[in-house]
Amino acid sequence: MSKERYVFPEDFMWGAACSAFQLEGASYIDGKTANIEEQAYEDPDRRSRFHDNRSPYVSADFYHKYPEDIALMREMGIKSFRFSIAWSRICPDVSGIPNRAGIDYYNRVIDELIAQGITPMFDLFHSDLPYWVIEEGGTCDERFVEWFVHYATICFREFGDRVKLWNTVNEPKLTIYGPYSFARSAPYIRDEALALKSTHNMLIAHFRCVKILHEMWPDAQIGAVNNAGKCYSMSFEAEHIEAADRHGAMQLLFLAPMLLGTYPKEALEYEGVGKYISQEMIAEIKSEFVPMDFYGINCYCPMFIRAGGTSADGTTYYKPDVPCDEYGFHTYAPAMFDLLMDLRDRYGDVPVYITENGYTCRRNVETMEVENDLNDTARINYIREHLRAARRAIRAGVNLKGYYYWSVMDCWEGSMGYGYPMGLIAVNFDTLERTPRDSFYYYQTVISHNMVD
Predict the structure, then answer these.
(1) pLDDT computed for residue 312 by the predictor
(2) How far apart are CA 407 and CA 202, in angstroms?
(3) I want to staple 430 with a disulfide (CB 3.0 to 4.6 A). Which of 67, 243, 368, 434 is the partner?
(4) DSSP 223-268
(5) Residue closest to 41 by CA, chosen among 425, 361, 418, 430
């Protein structure tokens, strides 16, 4: 029997990813105002949720070091860099008056990427909601659609001549729905009606942005990025199987409307969620619906689900004794294949990108030394097994167009702080020195051969 060869299509998009706030630093430089994460760090009552209590204000300082960093990306051989635009750097307040310094900075980054032969893929909103949005009423305010579309239009106008791959939003289940459903971030409210109103606003804004971009730049493509993991039931009992299916569908609370123009039926049929989605909301989604060109999936690990718990969808997590990375993400690569097949069965031949997939290690944040984690064999194994799963999915008929490893270099990782680096490039956050890890050179080899071993 011949050994299976994991060769990828010639036009496969090999990429790496990070986000503006997590990588740039320069928190209050050149007219940028606070986002919800910076505001949380400044609040003594909220700071405890930051893992190592270190400031996110400088992070890896990509804002000033982007030429050096993009040169490393070129050395690695990536074809595309998925990044984001900091909304509060473009529109610092509710007036919507564009901040020229912010626009000029992203123009420099875009031009440098293109000069180095790297295709930019930009997210309009990647977790760093401007704090002025919260002060003005939050994402559940009806004006949110107007604010977001105005900001997006500025970005399309200023950058659309060179940026041809866009996403409206990253992980909206966490960043739009989550702040109101399970108080994940500002405004830290638990109100399912507000969570679904916020969800609805983001969907309407998404549809309008898709339409505007297609009108302004017909050669551009736009999608959105959702986080998802294959949900497995921990029992053969019907209630637990149904709970796993329901939780999987709730992960698609945004993706289903974005691709089909309707909320997922599992959400509509479950009382804890469906009672907050009115007939008027359903009708508005249908009337505003504009199909997007592709979708992105952030896929790190599977989830093991049982019925019960206090969540809106009536489910709870179960943590079986299976391998995990340092932060606790399960490292079960076949789940990526299963998820991609499920999505193909639900949504057909729509192009899809793995927009995030990555592995955490552990770091001593007191010294910030990186020498001890440069030989990251576990991360290499993780990448290899997930790329094998991705190639099997392509062979099985999934229209997978690319893979973006998270993250291109160490950055500020939300509640993980700087203590659980995920980068192919190590960053000493005291000195800002960059050092490629072994995984950098492994991924370089994968890209150059367009195949995984």
Answers:
(1) 82
(2) 26
(3) 368
(4) EEEEE---EEESSSSHHHHHHHHHHHHHTTTTHHHHHHSS--HHHH
(5) 418
pLDDT in tens, 370-429: 888 899 999 999 999 999 999 999 999 999 999 999 999 999 998 788 999 999 999 999
The total of other beta-carbon atoms located within 10 Å of residue 317's CB is: 13
Residue 3 burial (CB count, 10 A): 5
Distance CA 357, CA 341 (A): 17
How far is CA 431 from each of CA 60, 70, 247, rounded to the nearest angstrom?
10, 19, 43
> What secondary structure letter does DSSP report for 194?
H
| Catalytic annotation, pick one of 38, 288, 356, 413 | 356
Mean pLDDT check: name the lowest of 80-94, 120-134, 266-280.
266-280
Tell me: the pLDDT tens digits for 209-243?
999 999 999 999 999 999 999 999 988 999 999 99
Active-site hit among 171, 266, 288, 413:
171
pLDDT at 49 > cutoff 70: no
Q: Which of 438, 437, 427 is nearest to 69 (CA)?
A: 427
pLDDT of residue 397: 97
DSSP character at residue 330: B
171 labelled catalytic: yes
Coarse DSSP helix, strand, coil percentages of the chain, rounded to the nearest 5 percent:
45, 15, 40
Spatial CB neighbours of 374, under 8 Å, sequence gap ≥ 6: 426, 435, 436, 437, 438
pTM of the shown model: 0.96
Residue (of 140, 133, 142, 201) closest to 168 by Cα position: 201
- The answer for 405, left when phi > 0, alpha when psi is -120 to 50, beta otherwise, is beta
Joined together, the tokens standing for residue 88 give 């509060």
